[in-house]
Write a structure and sequence with these properties.
Elements: E1 11-16, E2 19-24, H1 31-42, E3 50-55, H2 62-73, E4 81-84, H3 88-97, E5 104-107, H4 112-119, H5 123-134
Helix pairs in contact: 1-2
Length: about 150
């Protein structure tokens, strides 16, 4: 994976194996980026999937969150989600998703290892997640240690 540059989008999502990794920069993502992410999630509706979210506090708008909850509710399989953030707002948002998926848990920035263990990532998925995180532009301001 190439290094991510200064012209970073406000959100990135990367599907590797059975893991969707989502990073939120500053502010809510544009609808087209959010829709791409939700489509990645929906494309695996009947397949095992885990989600790793990293954010300093940004997240979806109310309309985007509604689209997400509908997509999660339509899944035929459980959807484990690990959210890494030190933001109280994000942690509250994650708790509302617990109505639709019982396997959601929030972690603080330094708890990356625990988040990956919660998702039960295999060695290849763990390596891919760490590589993705290592190239994030705001990594210096997030206390995450891959």
């Amino acid at each position: 994976m190439s290094s991510l540059g200064a012209g970073m989008p406000p959100m990135l999502s990367h599907l590797v194996g059975g893991v969707l990794i989502v990073w939120h920069g500053q502010g809510a993502p544009p609808d087209d980026m959010w829709e791409t992410c939700v489509k990645q999630l929906d494309s695996r509706r009947d397949l095992p999937l885990r989600v790793l979210v990293l954010t300093e506090g940004a997240g979806p708008t109310a309309a985007q969150q509604l689209r997400l909850t509908r997509t999660i509710a339509a899944r035929s399989l459980p959807l484990p989600i690990a959210v890494i953030s030190d933001s109280t707002r994000v942690r509250f948002m994650a708790s509302t998703l617990a109505l639709f998926t019982k396997r959601i848990r929030t972690f603080r920035g330094p708890e990356l290892t625990e988040a990956l263990a919660f998702l039960e990532l295999d060695e290849i998925e763990t390596r891919a997640a760490n590589e993705f995180i290592a190239h994030l532009p705001d990594r210096a301001s997030m206390p995450i240690n891959p």
